[in-house]
Amino acid sequence: MNEANLAQDFAFTSEFWSGWIIVLTLGNIFACWWLIRWTAKRRAGEAAEGDTTGHTWDETLAEYNNPMPRWWLWMFYITMIFGLGYLVLYPGLGSFRGVLNWTHQNAYAKEMEAADAKFGPLFAQYATKPVEQLVLDPRALRIGERLFVNYCASCHGSDAGGAPGFPNLRDTDWLYGGNPETITTTILDGRSGVMPAWKAVLGDQGIKEVTAYVVSLSGRDADTSLVTAGKQHFATYCAACHGADGKGNPALGAPNLTDKTWLYGASAGVIAKTIANGRNGHMPAHRNFLGEDKVHLLATYVYSLSNGKR
C-alpha cells in the first residue's frame, strides 16, 4: 500500500470518527430533550387537576399529583441550550473547531505572551550580568529559587538534594561539569545519558567480577579474586567512558566511580543491576519553555547551591 492510499485511509477514518462523535453528541442532547418532553406529557386517565393523578394501586394507594417546579424544568432546557451554544463556539463536535477557532495551544501562547510582556523585563535586567556576580545578589537568587521550585523540584527535590536517578545539586560532584556555562547549557539544551547493558557480553560471573572491582574503586572491601578479574573486564569494556582510573569523563557524562557519590545507589546489588541492565538518564531541555533569561537566573541558583552561597 503506497503513501497516497495510507493518507486516504487515514482521512476516511478521521472523518468517520469525527462524524460518529457529532452524531453521538447531538443525539444525546436531543435524547435528553425528548425524554423531558415525554415524561412531562400527560397520560390518558390522569386528572387535569387535584391532589392525585387518578392512578391507584392496591385499592387505596394513590399517586399524588405534584409536578416538578417550572424553574427546575427550565434549568434542563437552559443547560441544553448552553451546551449547543458551546459546541457552536468551541471545539467539541469531532473535527469541527468552533466558530471562534479556539485551541489550547493558542490559549497557552496568548497567556505566555501576556506573561512575557509583564514579567520579561524583570528577568531581562539580569541577563547581561555573569553568574558569578549574580550569586551575590539575594534578589536574583530568590527569583532563581522560585524558578527551581516550579520547574526542577519534581525531579531534584525541593531542597535540590536529588533522588535515585536524579543528581544531587548541592554537592560538588557533577556528571557534565559544575561551572556556570556548563550548568546553563545543561538546563537550556538538556542531557541524555546512556549506560549500555553488559549482561549479554559479560555473563553472570563477569557481572559479579566487574561489580566487585567497581565497589573496590570507592575504597570498600571486596573479594580480591573477583576484583582482579573485574579489573581486566573494566579495562576492556568500561574504561573508554569512565577512564582507566574510573574517575569518569564529563564530556560523556560518565560518572566518577572512585568517590562516595552514586546516582542510583551504592550497594553491590544496585551496581550489579546497573552493569547488567544499563541505565538511561534524560534531562529535558528548557530553552524553548523557559527562555535564556529565566535559565540564566535558574543556573545562578543551581550554581550557588554547590558553591556555599545558599
From TrEMBL:
The GO cellular component terms are: plasma membrane
Give its localization: Cell inner membrane
The positions annotated for binding heme c 1 are C152, C155, H156, M283
Query: Sorted alphabetically, which keywords does the UniProt record give?
Result: Cell inner membrane, Cell membrane, Electron transport, Heme, Hydrogen ion transport, Ion transport, Iron, Membrane, Metal-binding, Oxidoreductase, Repeat, Respiratory chain, Transmembrane, Transmembrane helix, Transport
Name its GO BP terms in alphabetical order: oxidative phosphorylation; proton transmembrane transport
Q: Name one GO molecular function term.
A: electron transfer activity
Q: What is this protein's function per UniProt?
A: C-type cytochrome. Part of the cbb3-type cytochrome c oxidase complex.
Q: How is the cofactor bound?
A: Binds 2 heme C groups per subunit.
Membrane-crossing segments per the record: 16-36, 71-93
What's the main place this protein lives? membrane
Task: Please name the PANTHER family in this protein's record.
Answer: CBB3-TYPE CYTOCHROME C OXIDASE SUBUNIT FIXP
Pathway assigned in UniProt: Energy metabolism; oxidative phosphorylation
Q: Which Pfam families match?
A: Cytochrome_CBB3, FixP_N
What are the required cofactors?
Answer: heme c
Q: What is the name listed in the Swiss-Prot or TrEMBL entry for this protein?
A: Cbb3-type cytochrome c oxidase subunit
Q: How does it assemble?
A: Component of the cbb3-type cytochrome c oxidase.
Q: Which family does the similarity line name?
A: Belongs to the CcoP / FixP family.
Give residue ranges for domain Cytochrome c.
139-218, 225-306
Gene3D superfamilies tied to this protein = 6.10.280.130, Cytochrome c-like domain
Q: Which residues bind heme c 2?
A: M195, C238, C241, H242
